Amino acid sequence: MNIVSVKASQSYDVVIGRGLIASCGEYIKKVTAAKSFAVVSDDNVDKLYGDIVEKSLKEQGFEVCRFVFPHGEASKCSAVLNDIYMFLTENHITRSDCLIALGGGVVGDITGYAAATYLRGLDYVQVPTSLLAQVDSSVGGKTAIDLPCGKNLVGAFKQPKLVLCDIAALDTLPRDFFIDGMGEVVKYGMIKSSELFDILSGNDIDSIKNILEDIITRCVSIKRDVVEADEFDKGERMLLNFGHTLGHSVEQHYNYTGISHGRAVAVGMALITGRAENKDLCADGTLDKLTACLKRYELPFSTDIPVSKLADACLNDKKRAGGSIYIIICSECGKSSAVKMSIDEFMQFIG
């Protein structure tokens, strides 16, 4: 078992190991004085772990209620958020109580945002059950819902009290979902760690499962360092969005139902890197190395969507500031920077 400590506006531990879900009550009891918990999950995850989490919490003397919504990115919306608010009201959840996000990135994002806003804020704990959530979205305190015109456009910074990454949960993860999570893992190697990228390039979708605790710990440690340096996304934290600007546009094109997040990020990383290499903004061969790595994990690296159409959607991206937009470019595998472009420069860069 590994523990990564995050020292942000609220300090907390990210615990990485096996068997954490079944004993979650013991860990949670150490970090909160709450007596009542609202567990928020989706219908897929609740079937697998809802009863286990409730049992562990009740064994520690906690009162528990559960809210379950349909799985998928389409549920990360204002309608489901309002349903969560109503559920919390009906179950008399107060500011001294606690929410638990049990599930993947969608569950973590919307539960975190509910925790940030309901009664002007209450504690929450992340129990991520997907690879993508364990390596990325459960850590760092970004919470949000989507709008029809763009992804994660309404949100808040809200750090959890604890993150429990149970690697055993990944054993039951469908192959497609595991592949999706690898999109974010490759991102971490590209932006900050040539050592991690080399490990990924030397493995594949099956062999990487033998070293998951190390891989997840490396990703979480990178994110910890970035978040501690720039919690509120004003500078270095932008690097975590490598591949996301175009990736979010790909997701939006399919109304958040036609392509998963990690795969969209993989496409975004490849598109940006290809254009950066053509403009001599990264070392020759960087795209080939990235593409080869993506292929190892059965991730896409191209799209039939016209790039001009994706570029237009990017103008609603959170990394736009007035007449400029920040693009994350990897000068080589393991090194990245945020490059500020005018909108005209960006359109020429993408075109």
Describe the structure.
The protein is of the alpha/beta class. The protein is built from 13 helices and twelve strands. A four-stranded parallel beta sheet has the order 4-3-5-6. Helix 5 packs parallel to helix 6 and helix 9 packs across helix 12. The longest helix has 18 residues. The protein is globular.
Instruction: Give helix and strand order, one letter per element, not per position.
Output: EEHEHEHEHEHEEEHHHHHHHEEEH
- What characteristic shape results from the CA principal axes? globular
Structural class: alpha/beta
Q: Taking Cα atoms only, what radius of gyration do you get, to the nearest Å?
A: 19 Å
Task: Give the biggest beta sheet.
Answer: 4 strands, parallel
- Which stretches of 5+ consecutive residues score pLDDT under 50? none
Helical residue percent? 40-55%
Order of strands across the widest beta sheet? 4-3-5-6
Number of strands: 12
- Mean pLDDT across every amino acid position: 94
Strand residue percentage? 15-25%
* Individual helix count: 13
Cα separation of the termini: 47 Å
Layout of SSEs?
Layout: E1 2-7, E2 11-17, H1 24-29, E3 36-42, H2 43-59, E4 63-69, H3 78-90, E5 98-103, H4 105-117, E6 123-128, H5 131-137, E7 142-147, E8 150-157, E9 163-166, H6 175-192, H7 194-201, H8 212-229, H9 244-253, H10 261-278, H11 286-296, H12 307-314, E10 320-321, E11 324-332, E12 335-342, H13 343-350
Parallel strand pairs: 2-9, 3-4, 3-5, 5-6
Antiparallel strand pairs: 1-2, 7-8, 10-11, 11-12
Helix pairs in contact: 5-6, 5-8, 6-7, 6-8, 6-10, 9-10, 9-12, 10-11
